[in-house]
Protein backbone atom coordinates (compact mmCIF):
# COMPACT_ATOMS: atom_id res chain seq x y z
CA UNK A 1 0.00 0.00 0.00
CA UNK A 2 0.99 3.58 -0.51
CA UNK A 3 0.20 6.58 1.65
CA UNK A 4 -0.30 9.93 -0.03
CA UNK A 5 -0.73 13.23 1.78
CA UNK A 6 -1.20 16.03 -0.79
CA UNK A 7 -0.89 19.67 0.25
CA UNK A 8 -2.80 22.74 -0.81
CA UNK A 9 -6.11 20.91 -1.28
CA UNK A 10 -9.37 22.69 -0.50
CA UNK A 11 -8.02 25.81 1.13
CA UNK A 12 -5.18 23.98 2.79
CA UNK A 13 -7.23 21.23 4.41
CA UNK A 14 -5.18 18.04 4.38
CA UNK A 15 -6.48 14.78 3.00
CA UNK A 16 -5.05 11.31 3.35
CA UNK A 17 -5.71 8.66 0.71
CA UNK A 18 -4.52 5.27 1.86
CA UNK A 19 -4.76 1.69 0.68
CA UNK A 20 -5.78 -0.88 3.24
CA UNK A 21 -2.73 -2.18 5.03
CA UNK A 22 -0.67 0.92 4.33
CA UNK A 23 1.85 2.07 6.92
CA UNK A 24 0.27 4.31 9.52
CA UNK A 25 1.11 8.01 9.37
CA UNK A 26 0.28 8.45 13.04
CA UNK A 27 -2.80 8.37 15.15
CA UNK A 28 -5.81 10.28 13.78
CA UNK A 29 -5.57 12.63 16.75
CA UNK A 30 -2.32 14.06 15.36
CA UNK A 31 -4.15 15.65 12.42
CA UNK A 32 -5.36 19.21 12.93
CA UNK A 33 -7.57 19.29 9.81
CA UNK A 34 -10.14 16.97 8.25
CA UNK A 35 -8.69 14.09 6.24
CA UNK A 36 -10.08 11.31 4.08
CA UNK A 37 -9.40 7.58 3.96
CA UNK A 38 -10.36 5.59 0.85
CA UNK A 39 -9.92 1.82 0.39
CA UNK A 40 -9.38 1.13 -3.32
CA UNK A 41 -7.89 -2.32 -2.83
CA UNK A 42 -10.83 -3.92 -4.69
CA UNK A 43 -10.09 -1.88 -7.81
CA UNK A 44 -6.52 -3.05 -8.38
CA UNK A 45 -6.23 0.12 -10.43
CA UNK A 46 -3.20 0.58 -12.62
CA UNK A 47 -3.99 4.18 -13.53
CA UNK A 48 -1.31 6.72 -12.49
CA UNK A 49 -3.97 8.96 -10.92
CA UNK A 50 -5.86 7.88 -7.86
CA UNK A 51 -9.24 6.69 -9.22
CA UNK A 52 -11.27 7.97 -6.24
CA UNK A 53 -10.47 11.36 -4.66
CA UNK A 54 -12.29 12.66 -1.59
CA UNK A 55 -12.43 16.14 -0.08
CA UNK A 56 -13.73 16.32 3.48
CA UNK A 57 -15.20 19.80 3.84
CA UNK A 58 -16.86 21.50 6.79
CA UNK A 59 -20.35 20.09 6.27
CA UNK A 60 -20.09 17.91 3.19
CA UNK A 61 -17.81 15.63 1.25
CA UNK A 62 -16.92 15.83 -2.44
CA UNK A 63 -16.07 12.58 -4.20
CA UNK A 64 -14.44 12.72 -7.64
CA UNK A 65 -14.31 9.42 -9.54
CA UNK A 66 -12.25 8.76 -12.66
CA UNK A 67 -14.40 6.72 -14.99
CA UNK A 68 -11.31 4.67 -15.85
CA UNK A 69 -12.03 3.11 -12.49
CA UNK A 70 -9.91 -0.01 -12.97
CA UNK A 71 -7.02 1.58 -14.88
CA UNK A 72 -7.70 -0.49 -18.00
CA UNK A 73 -8.61 2.37 -20.33
CA UNK A 74 -12.26 1.24 -20.39
CA UNK A 75 -14.57 3.92 -18.95
CA UNK A 76 -17.37 2.79 -16.68
CA UNK A 77 -20.84 4.27 -17.13
CA UNK A 78 -21.68 7.13 -14.80
CA UNK A 79 -25.19 5.73 -14.26
CA UNK A 80 -23.62 2.64 -12.69
CA UNK A 81 -21.99 4.73 -9.94
CA UNK A 82 -23.70 5.83 -6.73
CA UNK A 83 -22.79 7.07 -3.26
CA UNK A 84 -23.68 5.50 0.07
CA UNK A 85 -26.31 2.98 1.14
CA UNK A 86 -28.96 5.39 -0.16
CA UNK A 87 -27.43 5.16 -3.67
CA UNK A 88 -27.23 8.91 -4.22
CA UNK A 89 -26.59 9.90 -7.83
CA UNK A 90 -23.70 12.12 -8.98
CA UNK A 91 -24.28 15.84 -9.33
CA UNK A 92 -21.76 16.40 -12.14
CA UNK A 93 -21.33 14.01 -15.05
CA UNK A 94 -21.78 13.66 -18.77
CA UNK A 95 -20.95 11.07 -21.39
CA UNK A 96 -18.11 13.26 -22.65
CA UNK A 97 -16.47 13.72 -19.24
CA UNK A 98 -13.88 11.32 -17.85
CA UNK A 99 -14.77 12.08 -14.21
CA UNK A 100 -17.93 11.93 -12.12
CA UNK A 101 -18.50 14.12 -9.07
CA UNK A 102 -20.65 13.46 -6.01
CA UNK A 103 -21.44 16.15 -3.43
CA UNK A 104 -23.30 15.12 -0.27
CA UNK A 105 -23.79 16.38 3.27
CA UNK A 106 -21.92 14.48 5.94
CA UNK A 107 -25.19 12.97 7.17
CA UNK A 108 -26.72 12.29 3.76
CA UNK A 109 -26.83 9.24 1.49
CA UNK A 110 -27.00 6.87 4.45
CA UNK A 111 -23.60 7.72 5.90
CA UNK A 112 -22.87 6.71 9.48
CA UNK A 113 -21.06 8.52 12.27
CA UNK A 114 -18.57 7.00 14.71
CA UNK A 115 -17.20 9.01 17.64
CA UNK A 116 -13.76 8.22 19.07
CA UNK A 117 -11.78 10.06 21.75
CA UNK A 118 -9.86 11.87 19.02
CA UNK A 119 -12.10 11.99 15.95
CA UNK A 120 -15.53 12.19 14.39
CA UNK A 121 -15.55 9.60 11.62
CA UNK A 122 -18.20 9.72 8.88
CA UNK A 123 -18.36 6.52 6.83
CA UNK A 124 -19.93 6.00 3.43
CA UNK A 125 -19.02 4.19 0.21
CA UNK A 126 -18.71 4.58 -3.53
CA UNK A 127 -20.75 1.88 -5.23
CA UNK A 128 -20.17 0.53 -8.73
CA UNK A 129 -23.07 -1.68 -9.81
CA UNK A 130 -22.81 -2.45 -13.55
CA UNK A 131 -26.06 -3.26 -15.32
CA UNK A 132 -25.56 -5.60 -18.33
CA UNK A 133 -26.88 -4.01 -21.53
CA UNK A 134 -29.90 -5.62 -23.18
CA UNK A 135 -30.13 -9.37 -22.78
CA UNK A 136 -26.41 -9.94 -22.37
CA UNK A 137 -25.54 -13.35 -21.03
CA UNK A 138 -22.03 -12.35 -20.01
CA UNK A 139 -20.63 -9.54 -17.89
CA UNK A 140 -17.17 -8.03 -18.09
CA UNK A 141 -16.92 -6.17 -14.79
CA UNK A 142 -17.84 -6.97 -11.22
CA UNK A 143 -19.66 -4.81 -8.67
CA UNK A 144 -17.34 -2.90 -6.36
CA UNK A 145 -17.83 -1.11 -3.07
CA UNK A 146 -15.14 1.43 -2.16
CA UNK A 147 -15.26 2.37 1.56
CA UNK A 148 -14.77 6.07 2.30
CA UNK A 149 -14.15 7.77 5.62
CA UNK A 150 -13.91 11.44 6.58
CA UNK A 151 -12.05 12.06 9.84
CA UNK A 152 -12.53 15.28 11.80
CA UNK A 153 -10.31 16.06 14.82
CA UNK A 154 -12.06 16.73 18.11
CA UNK A 155 -9.19 18.61 19.76
CA UNK A 156 -8.88 21.74 17.66
CA UNK A 157 -10.15 25.15 18.76
CA UNK A 158 -10.91 27.85 16.24
CA UNK A 159 -11.21 31.54 17.06
CA UNK A 160 -11.60 33.90 14.14
CA UNK A 161 -13.87 36.29 12.30
CA UNK A 162 -15.24 33.46 10.20
CA UNK A 163 -17.46 30.61 11.28
CA UNK A 164 -15.66 27.24 11.27
CA UNK A 165 -16.43 24.01 13.14
CA UNK A 166 -14.67 23.66 16.49
CA UNK A 167 -14.49 20.07 17.63
CA UNK A 168 -13.49 20.61 21.24
CA UNK A 169 -14.82 22.32 23.18
CA UNK A 170 -17.12 22.78 20.20
CA UNK A 171 -17.47 26.51 20.08
CA UNK A 172 -16.58 29.45 17.90
CA UNK A 173 -15.69 32.92 19.08
CA UNK A 174 -16.40 35.97 16.95
CA UNK A 175 -15.28 39.55 17.40
CA UNK A 176 -16.50 42.89 16.16
CA UNK A 177 -14.15 45.31 14.42
CA UNK A 178 -13.37 46.74 17.85
CA UNK A 179 -12.05 43.31 18.90
CA UNK A 180 -14.62 42.64 21.56
CA UNK A 181 -14.64 38.82 21.78
CA UNK A 182 -17.82 36.94 22.61
CA UNK A 183 -17.92 33.30 23.64
CA UNK A 184 -20.45 30.54 24.21
CA UNK A 185 -19.38 27.46 26.14
CA UNK A 186 -20.92 24.20 27.29
CA UNK A 187 -20.31 23.86 31.02
CA UNK A 188 -20.38 21.04 33.56
CA UNK A 189 -23.53 20.60 35.63
CA UNK A 190 -22.04 22.55 38.56
CA UNK A 191 -20.65 25.31 36.28
CA UNK A 192 -17.14 24.69 37.64
CA UNK A 193 -15.48 23.88 34.30
CA UNK A 194 -16.07 23.54 30.60
CA UNK A 195 -17.80 20.27 29.69
CA UNK A 196 -15.38 17.75 28.22
CA UNK A 197 -17.94 15.82 26.20
CA UNK A 198 -20.50 16.99 23.65
CA UNK A 199 -22.45 13.72 23.70
CA UNK A 200 -25.82 13.96 25.46
CA UNK A 201 -28.76 11.69 26.18
CA UNK A 202 -32.30 12.96 25.96
CA UNK A 203 -33.27 13.82 29.50
CA UNK A 204 -29.97 15.60 30.20
CA UNK A 205 -29.57 19.37 30.30
CA UNK A 206 -27.36 21.73 28.28
CA UNK A 207 -25.52 24.19 30.52
CA UNK A 208 -24.54 27.21 28.43
CA UNK A 209 -22.31 30.05 29.56
CA UNK A 210 -22.22 33.14 27.36
CA UNK A 211 -19.52 35.69 27.98
CA UNK A 212 -17.62 38.66 26.63
CA UNK A 213 -14.08 39.81 27.35
CA UNK A 214 -14.74 43.37 28.49
CA UNK A 215 -11.13 44.34 29.21
CA UNK A 216 -10.24 47.89 28.24
CA UNK A 217 -13.94 48.78 27.89
CA UNK A 218 -16.45 50.48 30.10
CA UNK A 219 -18.26 47.89 32.27
CA UNK A 220 -20.64 45.90 30.08
CA UNK A 221 -23.68 43.71 30.63
CA UNK A 222 -24.08 40.72 28.31
CA UNK A 223 -27.38 39.53 26.80
CA UNK A 224 -28.36 36.54 24.68
CA UNK A 225 -30.61 38.07 22.03
CA UNK A 226 -31.60 34.81 20.31
CA UNK A 227 -30.56 31.17 19.90
CA UNK A 228 -31.52 28.75 17.12
CA UNK A 229 -30.79 25.04 16.68
CA UNK A 230 -30.15 23.58 13.23
CA UNK A 231 -28.80 20.41 11.65
CA UNK A 232 -25.92 22.32 10.01
CA UNK A 233 -23.78 25.35 10.81
CA UNK A 234 -26.06 27.49 8.64
CA UNK A 235 -28.45 29.17 11.07
CA UNK A 236 -30.87 29.86 8.21
CA UNK A 237 -31.16 26.19 7.22
CA UNK A 238 -34.27 24.09 7.73
CA UNK A 239 -35.46 22.53 9.96
CA UNK A 240 -34.67 24.88 12.80
CA UNK A 241 -35.80 25.38 16.37
CA UNK A 242 -35.56 28.80 18.06
CA UNK A 243 -35.40 28.49 21.85
CA UNK A 244 -34.41 32.06 22.73
CA UNK A 245 -36.21 34.77 20.81
CA UNK A 246 -37.67 38.27 20.97
CA UNK A 247 -34.53 39.94 22.34
CA UNK A 248 -33.89 37.62 25.27
CA UNK A 249 -37.02 35.55 25.94
CA UNK A 250 -36.18 31.91 26.71
CA UNK A 251 -39.33 30.64 25.02
CA UNK A 252 -38.32 26.97 25.34
CA UNK A 253 -39.11 27.19 29.05
CA UNK A 254 -42.83 27.53 28.32
CA UNK A 255 -43.09 24.00 26.93
CA UNK A 256 -44.63 21.40 29.20
CA UNK A 257 -41.61 19.07 29.06
CA UNK A 258 -38.95 21.76 29.55
CA UNK A 259 -37.29 23.36 32.56
CA UNK A 260 -35.11 25.75 30.54
CA UNK A 261 -34.18 28.95 32.35
CA UNK A 262 -31.68 31.76 32.70
CA UNK A 263 -29.59 31.41 35.87
CA UNK A 264 -29.96 34.22 38.40
CA UNK A 265 -27.98 35.92 39.76
CA UNK A 266 -25.22 36.30 37.21
CA UNK A 267 -21.65 35.45 38.29
CA UNK A 268 -20.58 38.73 36.62
CA UNK A 269 -22.29 41.35 34.50
CA UNK A 270 -20.36 40.22 31.41
CA UNK A 271 -21.43 36.58 31.85
CA UNK A 272 -24.88 35.05 31.44
CA UNK A 273 -25.72 31.41 32.12
CA UNK A 274 -28.76 29.43 31.00
CA UNK A 275 -29.93 25.83 30.89
CA UNK A 276 -31.89 24.10 28.13
CA UNK A 277 -33.30 20.57 28.24
CA UNK A 278 -31.53 18.42 25.64
CA UNK A 279 -33.49 17.87 22.42
CA UNK A 280 -33.12 16.48 18.92
CA UNK A 281 -35.03 17.04 15.71
CA UNK A 282 -37.97 14.77 15.00
CA UNK A 283 -37.29 12.31 12.22
CA UNK A 284 -33.56 13.04 12.05
CA UNK A 285 -31.21 10.06 12.18
CA UNK A 286 -27.93 11.99 12.43
CA UNK A 287 -28.47 12.91 16.11
CA UNK A 288 -26.56 16.15 15.52
CA UNK A 289 -27.50 19.68 16.58
CA UNK A 290 -25.71 22.98 16.00
CA UNK A 291 -26.52 25.96 18.24
CA UNK A 292 -26.11 29.54 16.99
CA UNK A 293 -26.70 32.36 19.46
CA UNK A 294 -26.67 36.09 18.86
CA UNK A 295 -24.94 37.85 21.78
CA UNK A 296 -24.81 41.55 22.51
CA UNK A 297 -23.86 43.93 25.28
CA UNK A 298 -25.05 47.19 26.74
CA UNK A 299 -23.32 49.53 29.21
CA UNK A 300 -23.59 47.98 32.66
CA UNK A 301 -25.07 51.20 34.07
CA UNK A 302 -27.86 51.17 31.46
CA UNK A 303 -31.08 49.74 32.89
CA UNK A 304 -32.39 46.58 31.18
CA UNK A 305 -35.27 47.21 28.81
CA UNK A 306 -37.48 45.15 26.43
CA UNK A 307 -34.66 45.01 23.85
CA UNK A 308 -31.90 44.25 26.37
CA UNK A 309 -33.10 41.63 28.81
CA UNK A 310 -32.87 38.00 29.96
CA UNK A 311 -36.31 36.60 30.73
CA UNK A 312 -37.35 33.11 31.86
CA UNK A 313 -40.85 31.69 32.18
CA UNK A 314 -41.71 30.62 35.72
CA UNK A 315 -44.28 27.80 35.67
CA UNK A 316 -44.74 28.18 39.43
CA UNK A 317 -46.28 31.63 39.07
CA UNK A 318 -47.17 31.54 35.37
CA UNK A 319 -45.21 34.71 34.62
CA UNK A 320 -42.05 35.84 32.84
CA UNK A 321 -39.25 36.79 35.24
CA UNK A 322 -36.12 38.84 34.37
CA UNK A 323 -32.63 38.08 35.63
CA UNK A 324 -32.44 41.76 36.51
CA UNK A 325 -34.60 44.83 35.98
CA UNK A 326 -38.33 45.42 36.48
CA UNK A 327 -40.66 42.55 35.66
CA UNK A 328 -42.58 44.53 33.06
CA UNK A 329 -39.64 44.39 30.62
CA UNK A 330 -40.59 40.72 30.12
CA UNK A 331 -44.28 41.32 29.37
CA UNK A 332 -43.54 41.45 25.65
CA UNK A 333 -42.36 37.81 25.80
CA UNK A 334 -45.96 36.73 26.34
CA UNK A 335 -47.12 38.83 23.40
CA UNK A 336 -44.31 37.44 21.19
CA UNK A 337 -43.50 41.00 20.12
CA UNK A 338 -40.96 43.02 22.06
CA UNK A 339 -41.63 46.51 20.78
CA UNK A 340 -40.35 45.97 17.25
CA UNK A 341 -39.86 43.27 14.64
CA UNK A 342 -37.21 40.61 15.10
CA UNK A 343 -33.61 41.45 14.27
CA UNK A 344 -33.63 39.23 11.21
CA UNK A 345 -36.55 41.10 9.71
CA UNK A 346 -36.20 44.81 10.42
CA UNK A 347 -34.02 47.44 12.08
CA UNK A 348 -34.45 47.85 15.81
CA UNK A 349 -34.88 51.29 17.29
CA UNK A 350 -31.58 53.12 17.82
CA UNK A 351 -30.10 53.36 21.30
CA UNK A 352 -27.07 55.34 22.39
CA UNK A 353 -23.69 54.30 23.72
CA UNK A 354 -21.45 56.61 25.78
CA UNK A 355 -20.25 59.43 23.58
CA UNK A 356 -23.54 59.73 21.76
CA UNK A 357 -22.89 57.01 19.16
CA UNK A 358 -26.05 55.58 17.68
CA UNK A 359 -26.46 51.79 17.72
CA UNK A 360 -28.71 49.81 15.40
CA UNK A 361 -29.28 46.07 15.06
CA UNK A 362 -28.94 45.19 11.40
CA UNK A 363 -30.49 42.28 9.55
CA UNK A 364 -27.25 41.08 7.96
CA UNK A 365 -23.72 42.32 8.65
CA UNK A 366 -23.33 43.97 12.07
CA UNK A 367 -22.56 47.66 12.34
CA UNK A 368 -18.95 48.03 13.55
CA UNK A 369 -20.18 50.34 16.31
CA UNK A 370 -22.52 47.65 17.62
CA UNK A 371 -21.01 45.29 20.13
CA UNK A 372 -22.67 42.06 19.08
CA UNK A 373 -21.83 38.77 17.36
CA UNK A 374 -23.14 35.35 16.35
CA UNK A 375 -21.42 32.43 18.08
CA UNK A 376 -21.75 28.75 17.25
CA UNK A 377 -21.56 25.61 19.36
CA UNK A 378 -21.62 22.24 17.67
CA UNK A 379 -22.13 19.70 16.61
CA UNK A 380 -23.73 18.27 19.75
CA UNK A 381 -24.50 14.55 19.64
CA UNK A 382 -27.94 13.75 21.03
CA UNK A 383 -28.81 10.12 21.64
CA UNK A 384 -32.08 8.63 22.87
CA UNK A 385 -32.77 5.33 24.56
CA UNK A 386 -35.52 4.76 22.02
CA UNK A 387 -35.04 5.72 18.38
CA UNK A 388 -38.43 7.41 18.10
CA UNK A 389 -38.22 9.55 21.22
CA UNK A 390 -39.06 13.15 20.32
CA UNK A 391 -38.47 16.12 22.63
CA UNK A 392 -39.06 19.10 20.36
CA UNK A 393 -40.99 19.99 17.23
CA UNK A 394 -38.83 22.29 15.05
CA UNK A 395 -40.28 25.50 13.77
CA UNK A 396 -40.78 25.91 10.06
CA UNK A 397 -37.78 27.44 8.32
TrEMBL record:
One cellular-component annotation, GO: plasma membrane
Post-translational modification: Proteolytically cleaved before the transmembrane segment to yield the secreted ectodomain incorporated in the zona pellucida.
Subcellular location: Secreted, Extracellular space, Extracellular matrix; Zona pellucida; Cell membrane
UniProt domain ZP: residue ranges: 55-318
InterPro entries, alphabetized: ZP-C (IPR055355), ZP-C_dom (IPR042235), ZP-N (IPR055356), ZP_chr (IPR048290), ZP_dom (IPR001507)
Gene Ontology BP, a term: binding of sperm to zona pellucida
GO molecular function: acrosin binding; structural constituent of egg coat
Keywords: Cell membrane, Cleavage on pair of basic residues, Disulfide bond, Extracellular matrix, Glycoprotein, Membrane, Secreted, Signal, Transmembrane, Transmembrane helix
Gene3D superfamilies: Zona pellucida, ZP-C domain, Zona pellucida, ZP-N domain
A Pfam family of this chain: ZP-N
PROSITE patterns assigned to the protein according to its UniProt record, in alphabetical order: ZP_2
Topological relation to the membrane, as annotated: Single-pass type I membrane protein
UniProt keyword annotation of Transmembrane helix present: yes
Similarity remark: Belongs to the ZP domain family. ZPC subfamily.
Summary of the function given for this chain in its UniProt record: Component of the zona pellucida, an extracellular matrix surrounding oocytes which mediates sperm binding, induction of the acrosome reaction and prevents post-fertilization polyspermy. The zona pellucida is composed of 3 to 4 glycoproteins, ZP1, ZP2, ZP3, and ZP4. ZP3 is essential for sperm binding and zona matrix formation.
Comment text on domains: The ZP domain is involved in the polymerization of the ZP proteins to form the zona pellucida.
UniProt name for this protein: Zona pellucida sperm-binding protein 3
Annotated source species: Campylorhamphus procurvoides
Designated gene of the protein: Zp3_0
Amino acid sequence: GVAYNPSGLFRGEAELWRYRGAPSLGQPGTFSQPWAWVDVSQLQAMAPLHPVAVQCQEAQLVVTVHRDLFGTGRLVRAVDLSLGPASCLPVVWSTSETTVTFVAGLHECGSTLRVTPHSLIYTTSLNYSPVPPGNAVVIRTSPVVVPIECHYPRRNNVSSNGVKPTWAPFRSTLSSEEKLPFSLRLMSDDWSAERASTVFQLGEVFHFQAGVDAKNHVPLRLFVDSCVATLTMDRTSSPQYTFIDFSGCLVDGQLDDATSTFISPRPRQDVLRFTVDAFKFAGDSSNLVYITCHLKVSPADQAPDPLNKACSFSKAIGLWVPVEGPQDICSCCEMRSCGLARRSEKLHAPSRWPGGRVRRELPSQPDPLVKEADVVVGPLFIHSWQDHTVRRVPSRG
